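Hi C.,

You asked whether I'd gotten around to modeling the 490-residue construct. I have! Everything is below, sequence then structure, no commentary in between.
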Amino acid sequence: MWGRDRYPLVGMGNVAVLWKLLLSHGAANWRMLAVLALGVLVSSTLLASAPIYARAMADLGLKFSVRDELRGAPSIGAGIEAQQLATPDSLAIREAVEQRIGERLGWFASERSIILESARLTIGETGSEPRERTTLGLLYAIEGFERHVSLEKGHLPVPGDPDGPLQVAMGARAASIARLDPGDHFLLVEELDTCDRIIPETELEPQPPCDLTAIVRYSVPAVLTGIIAIEDPDASFWAAASDRYVLPRAPLVDSGLVLPMVAHVDSVLGELATSYPGQRLSLRWNILADIDRLDQGNFQRAREDILGLNEDLRAYSGYATSALTLSLEAFGRSADFQRAPLTILLIQIAAIALFYVALISVAVVERQGEEIALLRGRGATTSQVVALYALEGLALGLPAILVAPFIAGGVTALLGLTPVFSEISGGELLPVSFELLAFPLAALGAALSIIALTAPALAVASRGLQGQRRVIARPGLGLIQRYYLDVVLV
């Protein structure tokens, strides 16, 4: 209660006196003000959580939808065809391509491996075997393949002596068709001729015969070191193409089966490149995207960088492709529609919190009706009384503005520990990105709370002393009417 002799009438316009009134008022009514402060904080937090929660759900939806559609970590394939192994021009092109891949995809890539694929090589013993009806070999050098295969017999290829044979591994069926066991030596024969071949659209179609006028051959000594099998064909490392590295392929019209074999990448880029720099091959890169680095703010950039890399590599007769671009495009079309309902729901909840603040404000001001009338009777103007309550609301609102976005972010992160999100979040905290919009929305919640506090004060202060006496003399309102529950029901 504000006593009659507690505050002097002189200087009601003085800021110091207004602050003194504010402090004394707060001390006398701290319980009700604490409840009111809680309401202000809740309303500010709910409004601040709208962009934070919507962003977190969008980020979570992006990661879940991409992983669900692409079955794990998505891969991005890039490649250039018709290259030579280690000539100056081919090395310059390879360096330029790897630089473009790093610039475009490095910011969200988790792993990158290079794959070298040779031309079809004749498997022989003397190097003079005719290509017709002869089993062919397809040499691959895959960076990091050792972690994704199981060894059935022998040992995996390792970089060897520059003067020694090239070490390779094969799948069991391919080795059986070639009649090779671990430890067997053979030759991989590169054959160049003047035949103007027509490449069929698919490997199942026969290749038309052609006129042959000249042939040049050179041989690469090789040794089979082991029999391997793919450990997990569905692993992202293989980019859904694991069979091509271990299973025989359909024959061409003038040859036997094509058998894949795998060498250590350092052997091909090192010893083989030194001895046979003009060896024909194709280069491919398999880049695994780290979905955890993608969010609502950068997923469009990721899609544009993949498409941009494809445009960049066209200058080298290359390409870049990934199913990830389609997933990101589909997510972009639906993101805005998914975000709007969440924001509307949170705004509705915030409106309930503001209604709670309004009810508490009405209760606080009505309890202080006599004190407000006393201030008016001692010379205080309506604006001065309203200013007192506005300062009181500001004192409650400023801390709420500062802490509400952080509380909203913390609560949103904790949702990852709840059963509802545990399957998606893995039982860990949800990743949260702070939105700058959260602070203006927190300020809006505080401002609306201040209005909810000052509006009843304005109504009571406008009555004056005589008006307050008439209100007291009237019969009291029921609970429903006193707190405007009748308005809510209507």
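If it helps when you're writing up: Residues 324-367 form the longest helix (44 residues).

Thanks,
B.
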